[in-house]
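Reviewers of the previous submission asked for a worked example of the structure-prediction workflow described in the proposal, so we include one complete record here. The input consisted solely of the amino acid sequence. No template or homolog information was supplied to the procedure at any stage.
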Amino acid sequence: MNREFSSDDAPRYLMCETARVYRLMMIAAGMMGTYTLVLRGGVFCNAQTANFALMAVALGSGDWNGAIYYLIPITAYLMGAVLSELLPKKVRSWGLFRWDTYLVGFEVITLFVVGFIPLTVTDRLVQIIINFICSMQYNTFRQAEQVPMATTFCTNHLRQTGIHLVKYLKTGDEAMRRRIQSHLTMIACFVAGGVVEVVLCGYAAERAIWLAMVPLLVAFSILARADVGIEHDFLGRIPAGH
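From that input alone, the workflow returned the following structure tokens.
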């Protein structure tokens, strides 16, 4: 029997909560982050701490126009979080796929479009687009098999690794060891995605972002198949962590 389901066939974990889906999302995130760093202005768009830091630098330097600019990607990230909170309830009434599945499909379409935006176009446009979809991804995929996770950056995984390492050394608890493994695997997925993306950036230019569509398409197929099949009766169930 599939370990993700209990004996009465009710999902223990929804497919959108499984580790394999989270790893695919993390690979895609590594590719998106590397793409914007290498080809789109040297900015890591998967999170917003850098933009707040750069806004602070601009304010401290008296560059008011520069400081105001950073409100644009910050607002895009904020809107991604807001929409990913508002839309799931509406999507559930459609009765076909879960919100998580629609979101992954939306990411695929968005990255396909981004691949057609020439490098001669201002980097800020692509940065804002990546800000937006990374925010929705981060806010939607929150917990993998009861373990809180982030799918767009590594800081939390590194912190959690340190926390659970100390607990494991103190207690020898195998559950802590498994947590360490889970978080290190997520970091490895991010780095692996980034490495492959860097190589492709040297050959495919703006279209290199299409590589991130591969893990997303695999995730979409897994999620969609579950939505129309074994999990169709559970489309109204809210994923853990929400």
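The beta strands are 143-144, 147-148. We consider this example representative of the routine output the project will generate in years two and three.
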